[in-house]
Amino acid sequence: MEGENALNLLRSRICDTGFIFKDSSDTNYSKLKFMISTSVAEACNNSILLLGPRGSGKLAVLDLVLQDLLIQYPDSISVVRLNGLLHCDDISAFKEIARQLCMEHQLLFSKAASFDDNSQFMVAVLKECGLAHKTVIFILDEFDLFAQGKQRLLYSLLDAMQSVSSQAVVLGISCRLDADQLLEKRVRSRFSHRKLLFLPPSIEDSQRLLVHMLTLPIDSSLPYDYAVEFNKKVQNIIEDKRFKEIFNKLLNFDSSVKHLLKFLFYAVSHMDLQTGFLSRENFETAFTNIQRQPKLECLKNCSVLELYILVSMKRLEVKEKSLCNFNAVMKEYKNIHDSFQTSDYYARNVCLRAFEHLLHRELLCFTDNRGHSLSVEFRPVKLLISSAELHQGLKAYQSCPAILQKLVERDG
């Protein structure tokens, strides 16, 4: 029972962005909330860029801030959201702004309205909102895509904010740290040049977040002795040498907060509910599951014949014949069959189709682009999977012939 309650608590924490990003007064959450709330309270215009790599928490923090501000100023904030992947051209952007403003203020939206009509409507609404002491917050996700072309949307928005009567905040979100440098001179001169950087946490910060997420409160509904023992075991895991190796590999692969939370969710989900405690094996399983292994996934869907072709090519590599063609692979395939008297032997035309299938799956590739005039059988190819990946894939393949695993182990 304690294990299930602890599992639910930890899962809810990992999914709760507020628990993750509201733990300090010196965070981007606090800074952004101060900037926007000041603009709303003092009826002034502002433009801010949130910059950082994907998974660093830009949108999560912004959504938290907006949730709080909509509670604090329920009748003084209107939000318009655009995404550069959908609305990067000016016509669709202004149409979407007009549509959202019409929904917000219960007005009739005209699909037939022209670009100029929608632009003038936006400026008029901004002035009306300013007179009503209501701030319109424009969120431009993938901001760098709006900075392409003539940048009429950005210019119109920022130019309208120069008016005394308008009241708006423009929030640009981008993975490009130089997003402000993409702006034209006329746009840049109207921009407030406020930026918040969302950088991946350091190893120490990631460890602190790990402890913060996994430490159970001792003054909760959970039994005191259980919570103390749980926290002690978590601390022992964190100090374990093998866990530190796994954690460092995880951060080297992707140090973003999003990736760390995904890792923790996998680990917590594998917790043994009978004992009610986390173990190092839970984190090892989570690390294995979270790693992207597209080549191993391809191997799972290969036929037995395709596995023979891959092993034949691997044997040619061991013999220092890394550059070979289909004919050379067929000779090695025949050698395996003759040496071990395997029952898996197929006709040449069947093998050629399997060979082409491996090329299509990008487990093999042609070594250059100069042999287009040659038949597939004669064009040199190379293997795109390592010995370790091939060995691991064969072990996971349920109906893999035992001889193939032995060949890879012996040659590897």
UniProtKB/TrEMBL annotation:
Q: Where in the cell is it found?
A: Nucleus
Boundaries of each Origin recognition complex subunit 4 C-terminal domain copy? 210-393
Domain of life, source organism = Eukaryota
Q: Name one GO biological process term.
A: DNA replication initiation
Entry's Gene3D superfamilies?
P-loop containing nucleotide triphosphate hydrolases (3.40.50.300)
Q: Which UniProt keywords apply?
A: ATP-binding, DNA replication, DNA-binding, Nucleotide-binding, Nucleus
Q: Which residues form the ATPase AAA-type core domain?
A: 48-194
Q: What is this protein called?
A: Origin of replication complex subunit 4
Annotated Gene Ontology MF terms?
ATP binding; ATP hydrolysis activity; DNA replication origin binding
Q: Which family does it belong to?
A: Belongs to the ORC4 family.
Query: Which InterPro entries does the UniProt entry name for this protein?
Result: ATPase_AAA_core (IPR003959), ORC4 (IPR016527), ORC4_C (IPR032705), P-loop_NTPase (IPR027417)
Q: What does this protein do?
A: Component of the origin recognition complex (ORC) that binds origins of replication. DNA-binding is ATP-dependent. The specific DNA sequences that define origins of replication have not been identified yet. ORC is required to assemble the pre-replication complex necessary to initiate DNA replication.
Gene (name only): 25485446
List cellular component terms (GO): nuclear origin of replication recognition complex
